[in-house]
């Protein structure tokens, strides 16, 4: 019973910026990790960035130095994307790994938000 809602996708020129937002809600006891994945046409879904409850971050090599993942004290995570490249074009998905109030682990996904970078 974990719900994930994303926003912030859109069309941007190469070199531009976008900020994606994700909010988790539901019967959440605690959030273990939140992250962003992306999937381009014909490609496997890949990890872009993840942040743990302790604030530890990991990034795909392709986005290091350009993207920043962050979270607030609520159940929200953000992905600041700078210096966007056409190869960043993909559907971006927010993933939330949470412990529910019943102490079960729930891996929940957002519906996806499309990012298109034009050259």
C-alpha Rg (nearest Å): 14 Å
Percentage of residues in DSSP E strands: over 45%
Distance between the termini: 40 Å
Count of helix runs: 0
- Looking at the structure, what is the overall shape? elongated
What is the number of E strands?
A: 11
Name the helicity range.
under 10%
Structural class: mainly beta
Low-confidence stretches: none
The biggest beta sheet reads:
7 strands, mixed
Order of helices and strands: EEEEEEEEEEE
Mean pLDDT: 96
Based on the structure, what is the oligomeric state of the protein chains? single chain
What does it look like?
The protein is elongated. 29% of the residues are buried. By secondary structure, it is mainly beta. The protein is built from no helices and eleven strands. The strands form two sheets. Strands 2, 4, 5, 6, 9, 10 and 11 form a seven-stranded mixed β-sheet that branches. A four-stranded antiparallel β-sheet has the order 1-3-8-7, with no helix packed on it. The mean pLDDT is 96. A hairpin with a 4-residue loop joins strand 5 and strand 6.
């Amino acid at each position: 019973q974990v719900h994930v809602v994303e926003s912030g996708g859109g069309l941007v020129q190469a070199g531009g910026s976008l900020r994606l937002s994700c909010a988790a809600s539901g019967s959440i006891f605690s959030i273990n990790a939140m992250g962003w994945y992306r999937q381009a046409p014909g490609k496997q879904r890949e990890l872009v960035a993840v942040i743990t409850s302790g604030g530890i971050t990991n990034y795909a090599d392709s986005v290091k130095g350009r993207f920043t993942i962050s979270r607030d004290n609520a159940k929200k995570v953000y992905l600041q994307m700078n210096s966007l490249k056409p190869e960043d074009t993909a559907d971006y998905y927010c993933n939330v790994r949470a412990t529910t109030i019943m102490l079960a682990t729930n891996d929940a996904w957002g519906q996806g938000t499309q990012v298109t970078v034009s050259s």
